[in-house]
Amino acid sequence: MTALALQLLQMVLVLAAAPLLTGVVRKVKARLVGRRGPSPLQPYRDLLRLLRKEAVVAENASWLFRVAPYLVFAALWLAASLVPTFTTGLLLQPTADLIALVALLASARFMTALAGLDIGTSFGGIGSSRDMMIASLAEPAMLLVIFTVSIVAGSTALASVADYMREAEVGLRVSLAMALVALIMVALAENARIPVDNPATHLELTMVHEAMVLEYSGRHLALIEAAAMLKLLFYISLIACIFAPWGLAAPGEGAAVAAFALTAWSAKLLLGAIALAVLETSIAKMRVFRVSEFLGGALLLGLLAVIFLYVSRGI
Amino acid sequence: MKDLYFDTAHMLGAAVLLLSFALLFQRRLSGVINTFAAQAVVLAMAAAWQGFVQGAPHLYITALVALVFKAVAIPVALHRIVRLLMIHRTVETALSIGLTMVVGVALVTLAILLVLPVTSDSAALTRENLALALSVVLLGLLTMITRRNAVTQVIGFMSLENGLILAAVGVSGMPLVVEMSVAFAVMVAFIIFGIFFFQIRERFDTLDLHYLESFRGERS
């Protein structure tokens, strides 16, 4: 019963926190470049405004174009609610397998890319093909990171990985450090963040994610944007859950522990948002054709992490 | 606590290895020089940490030598040379970056495969340390092979020497005399290289060693 309640709480929490997280990242970025920036609550207002607006759909759009936002949103909401953010005692925890999470993200990306192609505009096509190119490199890197983590922890279930990292004397591992760097690079690429894509551009030839969803409006756009915000929250929570699981409440612990765990999670999200904003303001966007080198670097780090597992101690 | 000591040492070793990869990844000459300086800083930290863990004060001198010469003096001098010769443009690569990276990973695997059977009866810690150091040496060689520019080749040579020092500081009981002589050998080599840069440049109007091949009769 508590597991169900916690699961529902988590689903509401991630949905409620995701726009705030994006708002904080934007605010910190604006402050770093010397602007005042909109309030961190602005993404909520944007989403509400979009939800109230009429959805305009192109004449030649098929049913696929209309269902894609719902599927993408559902997949990402599910993924974000599966990650143990503040407690490992969630109802759906047995399904929170790292490989299943990758599959959820991949199906969301697949739907977005199909929707981008469906409408038949050149921008959508460019966006979809570029996004697939990025995915073809980001996913192997992600899988290598998962291999490293699960070989160390002995499981691909996220809850057991978090428990292992928190309780066992893992120490500083070369492999895990490489895996962390690789996962951060993958997260930057997957969230269309600065060295790979610029989340703030509209109508530019270099954009990737925005190009795919250019034709969306109204509630469809609101869902797509909310899905993107959930994805950012998902990645920060995932990194925190695997590499910094401190403060996570175990199942059966009291309300005070859970409350502390919630505070710890908020602190981790805030730290992640600030780190992301600092990173984004300190580097420039890459040319699209250099993205393969960037993600190739992530792939290489993941591979090195797996290789080094076999020479390090305790395996 | 002992675990943490060795883990930190390995983290620093791995950081040196990653900076070797970064060296392969860089295209611009100034970026290559800066990456090399960063590698020397991490190497100095690794040496100082080993000195602290092993209780061997002479390793602090090794760290200081690495910090002063390789992290400050040589990069500053190289920056000066690059500015004097006006070649702060893009580095040309003989192989593409992606291919270089794949070869780099293959070399790291080779280093591990080589080290594992040789040191099968020693501790896992020594093994990992030697594997890291040998990988850095091989990646330094790879940098020398894949780059055509004389400055980058020199940096490849120096990063190879960083790998040697990394191996040396990991083994306890390495006499200081050996390290000092290696450091001075590199210093002398650097001075000779510096003279050569200007000589090559004066003769051929370029530092691209590709042009030298026709004079050796390798290409018509």
Written description of the protein model:
The complex is a heterodimer of chains A (315) and B (220). Chain A has 315 residues and is an all-alpha fold. In chain A, 70% of the residues lie in helices and 0% in strands. The longest helix of chain A has 32 residues. The model of chain B has no long low-confidence stretch (mean pLDDT 81). The N and C termini of chain B lie far apart (63 Å). With 220 residues, chain B is mainly alpha-helical. In chain B, helix 1 runs antiparallel to helix 2, helix 1 packs parallel to helix 5 and helix 4 runs antiparallel to helix 5. Helix content of chain B is 79%, strand content 0%. Chains A and B meet through helix 7 and helix 11 of A and helix 1, helix 4 and helix 5 of B.
Strands, helices and their partners?
The complex is a heterodimer of chains A (315) and B (220).
Chain A: H1 2-32, H2 42-52, H3 63-82, H4 98-118, H5 122-153, H6 158-167, H7 174-190, H8 209-212, H9 218-243, H10 255-282, H11 291-309
Helix pairs in contact in A: 1-3, 1-9, 1-10, 2-9, 3-4, 3-9, 4-5, 5-7, 5-11, 7-9, 7-11, 9-10
Chain B: H1 2-25, H2 29-54, H3 58-85, H4 97-118, H5 124-146, H6 150-170, H7 176-204
Helix pairs in contact in B: 1-2, 1-5, 1-6, 2-3, 2-6, 3-7, 4-5, 5-6, 6-7
